[in-house]
Every structure is written in C-alpha cells, then in structure tokens.
Design brief:
Two copies of one chain form a homodimer. The first copy, chain A, is an alpha/beta fold and 434 residues long. Chain A is built from 15 helices and 16 strands. In chain A, strands 7, 8, 9, 10, 11, 12, 13, 14, 15 and 16 form a ten-stranded mixed beta sheet that branches. At the A-B interface, α2, α6, β11, α12 and α13 of A face α2, α6, β11, α12 and α13 of B.
Chain lengths: 434, 434
Amino acid sequence: MSEPVRVGIVGLGTVGSGAYRLLADSAEHVARHAGRPVVVERVVVRDLHRPRAVAVPPGLLGTDIGAITRDRSISVVALLVGGLEPARSMMVALLESGKDVVTANKAVLAEHGPELFEVARRHGRSIAFEAAVAGGIPIVAAIGECLAANRIESIRGILNGTSNFILSRMEEEGADYAEVLRLAQDEGYAEADPAMDVDGTDATQKLALLTHLAFGTWVPWGQIPRRGIEGIDLDLMTTAREFGYRIRLLAIAARAPGTARVALRVAPTLVRIGTPLAETRGAFNAVSLVGDAVGKMFFHGLGAGQMPTASAVVADIIDTVVGRAAITFRTTAMLEPEGPADSLGAADLVERHLLRFLVADRPGVLARIAGCLGEQGISIAAVIQHEAETESGAVPLVIMTHRSPAAAVNAAVAAIDASDVVRGRSICLGVIDD
Amino acid sequence: MSEPVRVGIVGLGTVGSGAYRLLADSAEHVARHAGRPVVVERVVVRDLHRPRAVAVPPGLLGTDIGAITRDRSISVVALLVGGLEPARSMMVALLESGKDVVTANKAVLAEHGPELFEVARRHGRSIAFEAAVAGGIPIVAAIGECLAANRIESIRGILNGTSNFILSRMEEEGADYAEVLRLAQDEGYAEADPAMDVDGTDATQKLALLTHLAFGTWVPWGQIPRRGIEGIDLDLMTTAREFGYRIRLLAIAARAPGTARVALRVAPTLVRIGTPLAETRGAFNAVSLVGDAVGKMFFHGLGAGQMPTASAVVADIIDTVVGRAAITFRTTAMLEPEGPADSLGAADLVERHLLRFLVADRPGVLARIAGCLGEQGISIAAVIQHEAETESGAVPLVIMTHRSPAAAVNAAVAAIDASDVVRGRSICLGVIDD
C-alpha cells in the first residue's frame, strides 16, 4: 500500500469529533477505500482545555491554524467549524497554502461560495461539501455526478432535521410548537438557539447549494423567499389533516416547464399523506427529485447528527485522496446556467394553496374574501368554516384553492389582509399532491 | 472547451436506443458535465435492417465490433447487449483494444466479473456499471463511493421491477399470479419470457454485484440461495396482510453482528406495511441499507425502463470521460473482504418466519407440527387456522414464529414435510419488521 496521506482537522465539535473518531476507529476500512492509510496529523481547536468526547493525543492538538497551513506534509483538511468567520478566512488560508478542503459548513459556502470556489480554482485545489447538505444522504454526489445526464426538473427537500422533528412531533403528540421545541432542545435535536433551523435559514442555504449543482445557477441564499415553521399551530395541522395532508418545511427548486427559469422557495408546505415526503418523520431528511431521463427519485436518511455527518466528511476525504473530488470540483465549478436564470422566485410556482383567515363573524365576509380571490382569477376548491368557538367574534375561515400562480394568490391575500374583515394574521401555504 | 471525446455504442435495443437518444438530445448538457462534447462515433448492431425507434445516420451503423476496436479515436464504449455471449467476448475485445467500458449487463458481470475486471486491470481500463443495478438509482456510486467511510451492515433491495409490478398488482387488484403476469407482459413490464425476472435470477445477479461493492466479497451468484415469486398466491397475500405485512421479492445481504460473515438471500419476504420497502409499488426499485456511521438510508426510483437506465449509462460515460470512473474502478477492484467470508448463506439470518402448511383436517396435527418446531427450538408467536372450506380435507395452517435462525426453521419445515400430516407444498417466508 502507498504512503499514508496526512490530513488536518479544524474544529472538534460534534462533527469534528465524529470525523476524528471515524478515521481512527475505521482506519483499516478507510485505507482500503482510499488506497492508502489516512492519518490525522494535526487538529486545530479554539480552546485547548475544553473537555472532549474523543481522546486526541496532546501532541496533535493546537490552536494555531498556521500549524496546518505551514505543514507541507498535510494535503487534505477537514474544516469543521460553523458560521461565517473565522471559517471563511480559514478556508482561504488553507486553499492558499495548497490544501484541499472538505467541509460541512453550508453557511460559509452559501454566503461566500463564489469567492471561495474562485480561490480554490486559482490554487488548483478542491472544496468537497457532501456533508454540508442533508448530512449522510449523498445528495451532492447524486445531483452533481450520478444524475449528470439529466436536466433536473425539480427538487423538493426536507433539509432541516430540527424543523422536521418539531413538525412531526407536534402532529403525533398533539403538542404545541413551544412545548415540542423545548422537548427537541432537551433531546438534543434542537440547539439552545434554534433560530437558523426554525426560521428556514439553514434549509435555504442548503437549497442554494443544491440549486447551484442542479441548475448551474448561483443564487444568493438571501434572495430565496423563505418562511419558517414558527407560525404553524395545531389547528392548522388539524385542518391540513382534514384535507389529507401533513405540513413539512419544504425547500423547493422547480424549473418552469420548457424554460430555464427556476422557482425557489423554502416554506411550510402541505404534502399529501402517504407520499414519501409526508411520511418522513423525526429528525430525518429526505429529497425527492425529478430528472428528465431518470424520472422520479427519492432519498431518505439522517440529515444531521454526529456520525451521519462524519460519514459524509470522511467519504469526501476519501474522494479527495483518490482524486475524484478534484475532478468533480473542476466540472462543477465550470457549470453555467443553461440559458438566463432571469426570474427566480416562488411567484412562478403554480400549485394549490391552503389559506386560513381569521375573520369577523358577520354577514358578507365570505363574499368579500371570495371576491378578492376571484379578482385574481383564483378559483376555490373547498371551504371550511366551523362555528365560532371564541368570544372574540373572530372565526377561522379555511379555503383550498385550485392550482393558481403563487403571485396571484399572494396579491389576493394582501388585498384581503388590507380589508376590514380580517381579525388576525392570515396564513397561505402551498400544497403538493404527488 | 476541449476536443470532443468519441464513444461507441454496441447494441441498439431498448437501453442502447435510450443512451443514443440522450447523448443526442442532451448533447449540450452532457458536454457541460463532461467538460467536452461527447460524440457517438460508431454504433454496432446485430441486424442492420431491423426497424429502430432512433434515427442513427447510416454511416455510423455497422455490424462489426472490429470497426470500434480498430478505431483509435474511440476511447469509451457503452456495451448494451444482454446475456453472456457474445457480451463477454465483446467486452474482452473492447478492453484489450484499449477502450473503457460502460455496461448495463448485470448477467455478464455476475457470471464473469473477476475475469473481466482482471482483463480491464491488465490493460489499464475501467468498467463502469451503475446501469446494471437498479437502473436510475445511483446505488453503485452510493455504496462504492459515497458510503465508503461506512462498514455496511445490511442491504435490502427490491431489485427486480417486473416482480414488484406483479406482486403489487396482485395485491391491489386481488388478481392471481398468471393473470397479472399476462397484464405485465401486455403493458411491457415483463418480457415474453419472464423466467429470469420472476425466478429471482435477475435480482440475485444484482445482489452479487452489490455484495462485491459493499463487502469486498465476490460471491458467485449461483451460490446465493434464491427463490422466485412463482409460488406466491392470493391466499398467502391475504394472510400476510392479516398479520400487517406485504410480500416483496427482497434481495438481502446482512453482516452477522460482530463478524465478517455475510448472509445472502433472494426470496419473497414479508415486509411490514408502512415501511418504505413495503410501500414500494409497481415497477419501482428500492434499496434500504444500514451503515455503521450513516445509519439507515433509503433510495427509491425507477429500476428499469429505457430512459432511467440510459440516464445511468450516460452518467457512467461522463464519469469515464472526466476520469472518475478510472479512479473508482481502481479502488473498487482492490477491495478485499474484511476478514474471512467463511459462511455465506441465508441460514445465518435470524428473523421471524411465516409458515404455511396444507394439513390433514384431523386431531393431533397441530400438536405434531408444534412438536417439530419445538424440537428445533422455535417458538410460535401466532397461529391461524380457519375452518376447512374444501372437500379435500386439507386445510391451511399458518404459523408466525418468533425470531429464529433460518437453518432451524428450514430443518423443522423439512421434518414436517416428511411427516404424514402434510397434504401439499409448504411455504416458509422470512419476515422483516423495520
């Protein structure tokens, strides 16, 4: 067997510890796949004295990334710190010093991807990021390599395990959002500050990366319309179930038929009970995609957590060692959109919508709302209005529309919200049947 | 963009026509991913005059594979003929003349894999075969590359679309095997001679290839215990459903816990309703696998058919053009089993079993059968015996066992079959709950 390859690890949090442990415990197995031993030469952490779950020989540990960038024996580095800085500067320093980089940090790629990819290109290095999207599910390789013969028509993903854990627990246990969030934090499925998970930021950053791979289009993640799960209540879930749906935080990228335009959105969405996305429960991730040749594909697995993510990190290290990552990075980086991506936005999506209004309990309200919808050319498939239970005089009015452009539905909802019949926050969710 | 790469296609049947069409219709898209144009230089068929669904310029068509092997401008060849010969000789000739090969032919690889891989190695060429297993589902790449950091613990696959079409239609329509087989043939989901599909041969050959990738073990497919779906009747399906299961033709490879031993089997198996494999319907394929790091993964997609298979063929052509296939082939070919694979066989599997006996309707029969099971240490979880409906005096007796080694169950069934209480063919199916 050839000479060992020496790797560095930056960051020894959950994922870093997992990657370190996997490289140590499965050393023989990894060597078999890499064609040579893979040896961790140096580990850089922020705080030397923090207690850790893995036993790293003290000689390997340090706090200075220069110990890696200056060490010419190290060729591959797993950058496993989160957030934007110092992750960005560290990645630049690693690439400039001639290291290939493997990372699980979706935020830094979604924010600074074009700059970082350009630095890598200039220095002839690669960035591999399977672990940054959907953890253990090999969706980056599937889209970037395995389905390369396909024009991707749509991607629908459950890309944030925390949100999915919360939504499916609310549904299964009839517990409300705040209660389940506390439970998720206790069980380690949600961070102490879960904002980036529940407000859709995490899923949106992952969607931006998948969009780049699938459509050759780099979309700044902040431009993707995004809604989180904070507004989802049990009543809405019950209503959804009455119509035959569950609510999932879906990341969607869909090509408008026959065009190069891609509609993007992250939002809670109704998915029909019995379909694979609706049956994705707990902290699992899932991706359903359609390619013009392959048809419909579905992937399901653990999207986060220590060892599933470490599995993807180590697979990327192996890919980098054998040379596949360099090739993939080169071809991926050359991708350009097929035609102008001139209109990116959820407004292009045409689908059914579930609308819920809190309205005054008096004559003429339904006529008024139906009128606003009609003006936008939206036809109504079903209406549910139960008798008022509250003293407030406000009653929930739920409407399922036929297929309509999101732009028209949004305009109608805005008109209704501006009228005097509405007593609270209106909700508008897309509906997916297949 | 670089010089075009010139490819040959051998065989212009369903898959060959699909690959030709995809390379032509998506030429620009393929070039983007391959980093250079991919041009079909020559197509070899058996019969020049057969009518075809794709229009190949007559100058490209020929019947002599020598036109490809002698053409030094052709570097990659898609070998898309089925069966063993002349596929085997053709592949050897192509490799010896310096061509990299892409193929969808699982039979020739399962039968002659070690020889063909050795020829490729000797000539520094690669063989890519994503299309040979589960069509459009990228399971070969997933196991061979993406999950390389994992020790695979188990693979369970629905790998034959024809069998799954028949089983799920029987169940949905309450129609019997022969009737649904005719329907499947009419609709193009089954060949005129469906023997290799319904007797489990096709799935077993695919399982042999996946076993090689996942466990580094080359098992001659003929040594894998194999049963087809011919014996499945509607009564058995109804009984399975009463217990909460559907019947699927499952290909299983499972590592005995803590050992290097791998148990292999292809057989109709009870899978619990609601689990993803049980909900895989029609001509779809699916693979559920467990890796020690990644946990449980599930893949679902079209496992056969013209364009899904062509999607995998063209992805492999792209992989070959960019150089990934050569790397993967080199690392895969070096795989060796982790420890001795000293005991391969379904007898190692420990699971629940559903047994159905046709027994004489007289006293003492249940005691006799329960006695045979008890002697093998098998305990009974449930028994169903409905009142006799036939004049024959034979009644079906159905037993669900607790978890027991397959070897013990087989021995008990053999003893029962040898006794004088049995009036017809006994059936024994494994049961999977998760």
